[in-house]
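Possible regression after last week's pipeline update?

I re-ran a chain I had predicted before the update to compare outputs. Posting the input and the new output here so someone can diff against the archived version. Not blocking, just want to make sure nothing changed silently.
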Amino acid sequence: MSTSYFEVSQNSLICGYHFSPEQSGRPIETGEALALLNGEQASDDASFIWLHFDLTKAAAEKWMREHLNLPDEYYEALVVGSRSTRIEDVSDNLIAVMNDVSFEFTFDPSEMSTLWVSVSQRLLVSARTHPLSSVDQLRVAVKQGVRFSSSVALLIYLFRVQEDLLVKIMRDATLQIDAIEDKLLIGELAAKRADLGRLRRVLVRLQRLLAPEPTALFRLLHQPPLWISENDLDELRQSTEEFSLVIRDLAALQERIKLLQEEMAAQIGEQTNRSLFTLTIVTVLALPINIIAGLFGMNVGGIPLSQNPYGFLTIVLVVISFTIIAAWLAFRKKR
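New output (post-update):
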């Protein structure tokens, strides 16, 4: 393999680490990673490698296909794109599709993207198209010397980081909802309806993308690959259970938003009814004078009281009488 090709592939590698027992991750490049995987360098059986790729670089997927023995289902997942979070066993490899958010998440659906992960006993490969918060926190933890006993432990840490991130998003959303609810109690509605609708749309999409698919997860936990230790399997089971609880809290937060939207709709409907009633009253009260003014305003002969010195006063009294009767009928109907 030429040096230039390794340089091209290295440009698509965001980071690479070699983990040995009782040691923190050591940075490596693609050439050394291949040497370790092919057994050209001495390596302990308990050691493993993490390679993280940038899929926006054209060389990334090509290099993985040519040099890494990954299941075809992993590459099919790259083509399918974003789906709900899942983890399944494929030919003794764990294939995980994880949805994540960008670094500075501002409750915009466009700030969500997908991370594709393949895990075997000696190799964990992750790839993404956009910078993501959880995997970057994992990379920072590795640089700071956090130790991982296995490739599955690395995946579990990634799940826990994502869980913490989701909890933070829920707290921020709860603060925004509390502020909107306070505004609702004092009658300020117009400026906050759009914010509430946007929050609900984002939370619905977060739940749809981040909630693990139960069927694949159930099958994995009951029939795991033989190389996964019991301790890692218990940690994975606990992590997924905790993640499910967070997703349940997310659903409860959506229900709270729905109730607030219904309350807003009820208040707006009440305001609309009051406005319509006021408009109806004004129309009814103005009806007698409009009718009489229209009749007496016609330029035809025979208009009554035109020669009577008290004609104007008589018409005023008639208008006032009919207006009082119309007002009485209208307000009686309201009561």
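Follow-up from reviewer: compared with the archived run. Residues 1-9 have pLDDT under 50 and may be disordered. Marking as no regression found.
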